[in-house]
Amino acid sequence: MADHFGSPLAKPLFGTLAIIGLGLIGSSIARAIRQQKIAQRIVAIDASRDVCERVRALSIADHVTDDIAAGVKDADCVILCVPVGRMGEIAEAMAGHLKHGAIVSDVGSVKTAIVTQVAPHLPSHVSFVPAHPVAGTEYSGPDAGFSTLFLNRWCILTPPDGTSDDAIATVRALWEAMGSNVEVMSPEHHDLVLAVTSHLPHLIAYNIVGTAADLEAVTQSEVIKFSAGGFRDFTRIAASDPIMWRDVFLNNKDAVLEMLGRFSEDLSLLQRAIRFGDGETLFNHFTRTRAIRRSIIETGQDSAAPDFGRHAKDSASQ
Amino acid sequence: MADHFGSPLAKPLFGTLAIIGLGLIGSSIARAIRQQKIAQRIVAIDASRDVCERVRALSIADHVTDDIAAGVKDADCVILCVPVGRMGEIAEAMAGHLKHGAIVSDVGSVKTAIVTQVAPHLPSHVSFVPAHPVAGTEYSGPDAGFSTLFLNRWCILTPPDGTSDDAIATVRALWEAMGSNVEVMSPEHHDLVLAVTSHLPHLIAYNIVGTAADLEAVTQSEVIKFSAGGFRDFTRIAASDPIMWRDVFLNNKDAVLEMLGRFSEDLSLLQRAIRFGDGETLFNHFTRTRAIRRSIIETGQDSAAPDFGRHAKDSASQ
Questions:
Q1: Do B118 and B87 meet the contact criterion of CB atoms below 8 Å apart?
Q2: Which of A315, B18, B228, B247 lies at a 20 to 30 A Cα distance from A118?
Q3: What is the C-alpha to C-alpha distance for residues A20 and B94, in angstroms, rounded to an integer?
Q4: Is B138 within 8 Å of A262 when comparing Cβ atoms?
Q5: Are the beta carbons of A197 and B235 separated by less than 8 Å?
Q6: Which of A203, A218, A307 sits opposite B192 (nearest CB)?
Q7: Residue-wise pLDDT tens digits, B104-126
């Protein structure tokens, strides 16, 4: 699997591309688009003056503005990179100013709710191709972005029925040019898949870190000192952006509650096995989970380096 | 915080040191002891012929044997590195052959059960200083070990009442020479602390990976493809040694069930907040967990690199 970009595009996909919301994802898109020459001109739109200032300082866009109407008016493609809870109002604010024939996309982590909230605002002369790049880090903001964030990661498109094939093909080409693999599915199926591969893991991680923080018999300092026993792995995703994740859970309620129900059922089984000293149940469960890790490594979705490569430097000196 | 070993010892702590069980931990100890000149001679004892053969091929011990009695008879220090469930029988097997004045230690992840199972077998002329290095990777076996595994990690000693101060000081010096920080506490407190920083995280990780594997509506291939959304982090510790972890849960039942009860209570609160659309509860919870991550990074127990440094190579090319 490639670990670096292919060549930049010979011919850009877009004249002007506008990105609304220049956080980790939006600013990574800006960097990747410039590096891969995917658009001739990048307009960065953000409601925060601080963010606009950072984006200017980083020089990752050709034009930076906090004015949505002015920002989108010449754009052939507009990508919404704001928290899920804000997608609807942004769509409404920009709707009357979109260029005829423009493509609107987004990067939200839930899709059914976004289609419901965004699509009704959009004029019929634009195409809407919702997208979700399954990539990220625990850091936020324009400084956290980098151009290779999407390399070898999957991007899921969930176009509503009736979306033009041309628009879907263009958004696919956009993500492929940033190094991603693209898959198309329904918003409903997306929300179920991501509930288990992303939303539930985040909820569990946030929860266990909270539980550890609330203990009386074990001090915070002990939790931190002895975190290398496994706990520290969970603190990484529990350090993710709180607004983004609040919105994910509010907007993918049914699928998350379904997965959480299954998780709790399964946990009760393990709990019972521990209580009654049923080593066989524990051993069998702990054995079959190894195979999934192996597949994730084989398909290039994680590194085989022990301990996520934390020891890479040390190992060299062994 | 140091990222490499200090100088090797000018004078070894032990003439002969025996290690029983040459898996990830035992073989890492052998490598670190040789590198730091902590013992003049290392005897490796393992019941498995395959393991003995690998240890010979790796040349990480001066003598390799599957005979416990012969292996321990000249040892000034014996370290048990077998799964918790086997500690008692090994202690019984070696008890009559231990050298007068020897120090016996171990590396088990639970301590109350080990004190109960090992101490009664030991003759009064030896000292028993149980130890738990809070370090490891998801890999197992003699090939997985490396000398710097314990560097900058904590090692917890839980000497029973009446253990000689000299023996405790010697085991402390042993771990410090391998690069660890040492803390002394009661076995009961150890088991409570590790239940939250290590045992519960492993149980939760094993559980969520099992839940994902059992879904009907989401295929295994989708779980693997889209694992970069957070799920893959959990698969690492869910790939840990099944026998070791079975024994941990069977031998630290009370503390694990207590922590699991709290975890489930807290999860119910988050579940209820999702069900009723209570964004404030979610946001507040997700905000306070960030501080713990920060402390873990500041105290050198994890790296600040985004995504555990998985993107290190990519970032350089941004």
A1: yes
A2: B228
A3: 69
A4: no
A5: no
A6: A218
A7: 999 999 999 999 999 999 999 99
